[in-house]
Each structure stands twice: as C-alpha cells, then as structure tokens.
Amino acid sequence: MVEFDPAIREADETVLDVASDFAFLSWTVTDRIAIVSLARKPVNAVNQRMYRELHRFFTQTRRFVPDASVVVVLAEGPHFSAGNDLSEFASMTSANARERLYHAREAFYAIMDCPLPTVAAIQGVAVGTGIGISSSCDVVIAADDARIGLPEVKMGVMGGPRHLARMLPQHLVRYMFLTGELMPAKEMARLGGILETVPVERLHQRALEIAGLIARHDPAVLAAAKASLNEVEELPLRVGYEREQAMTLRIADEPAGKAAIARFFEGGR
Question: Looking at domain 6-215, which of 3.40.50.300, 3.40.20.10, 3.90.226.10, 3.40.50.620 is its CATH number?
Fold first, then answer.
C-alpha cells in the first residue's frame, strides 16, 4: 500500500468554514455576480492548500455566495496562474504523489461541477494548473497579451492535455503539450479556444459584462442548464439530446420554468 505524506494528510484536515479561513482565495458579490480572486502572489502558483480552497469553495458555492447566480474567476497580480507550485514537484515522490494529485484533480472537478455558471478571465500567463482552472470554467476570455500553455514536459510531469482538449482540437493540443510552447491568447481566440480577447485594462469589466448576460436569467433555470451541459458534453448526439429533453421535462412543472416562459412572452430577455 502506498502511504500518504503525513504533511499533506495534516493539511487536508484543515477546516475551511468561513471566508477568513481562506488564505489564497477571496470573493465579493455584486448584482448576483460572485467575483472570486486567485490570490497567491506573485504568480498564483497553486499549492496543496490552494487546491483544497478551490475545492471547498466550488463544492459549497451556494453556502459561501448564496446570493450569486454566476461566478467570475480572475487573478490578483499580473498572472492568472503560473501553474503548480514547483517546490511541490521537487519534493514529489511515489509515496506522496497520489494524494497530491488527488487534490489537484478534485479542485478542477469542483469548478466544472459548480452549480453556478463560471467565467474565467485570464491575464498574464495561464499554464499547467492555470489551464486546468480556466478550462474547467464555462466561458473563458483573456487579455490581448495573455499567453496560455502546457510546459509540463519540460519538468517531466504529465497532466493537462485533457483539459486543454475542452478548448482546442486534438492536433493543436498535442503540439502545445509536446513542444511546451505558449500560445498567444489572440491566437487561441482565433482558433475558437477562448471566447475573445480584450485590452488588459478592460478584462475584468468585460468578464462582468458577460457574467451579467448570464445572471439576468432565473437561477434555477441556470442551474438546470449548467447541469445539462455537463451531463451531455461527452455523449453521442442522440443520447445527449434525449438527456437535454429529459431536463426540459424535469423543469417544465417547476415554478422557475413557468416563470421563464412567462417572462419571455412578456418581452423579457
């Protein structure tokens, strides 16, 4: 049996119940939009504690931001995320790697499974773990001068191409992973990998504008839409469409579904 690193096990038992317990995430809510900031300066390199904070926040979003309908993920400092904390790669062994990798993937899955739609706003660089975080969001935009990539092969570690495959076709994913080269965000947008790029001084405002277009809809309908998107993403068309129709049936008799139809006929958007 592989034994887990006691230091990692101890960190995993830290309780994160209120905002003040979080060292590397902060958030505010305005107009039903939660703004969550990655806050581990100088480059938002993610360590085990930060992975756990991401997991806790996004699995309990309704608890921490009960008035929000959508989440914007952005970064303090010049970079979205320079990836995993390299010091942890240096100390990784077969004995402690399994639990460390578990915390990383559970953080990404928590963002994907968050019941609220999510918008990522990339500035500076988003590499490695930065790709995992941003690609796990529903919508991604970036600053004009941002760069995105997977430099893992340069350090002899694996992981990341499957996340990048949510953004780019397979041959481009393979090119980026095998070369380790960073791609300009403008090129990612041209290829359809992200929604758009804007000047860095407009990035956060644009993310809020997009979030506002989402937040105007009924929260219960948004939750159903997000769940439907997640459920059908990797399904064949016929099976996926049937699942989408099943979701329509599920909310047809709900007050939120009836209210949405009423608003539409009343000229709402």
Answer: 3.90.226.10
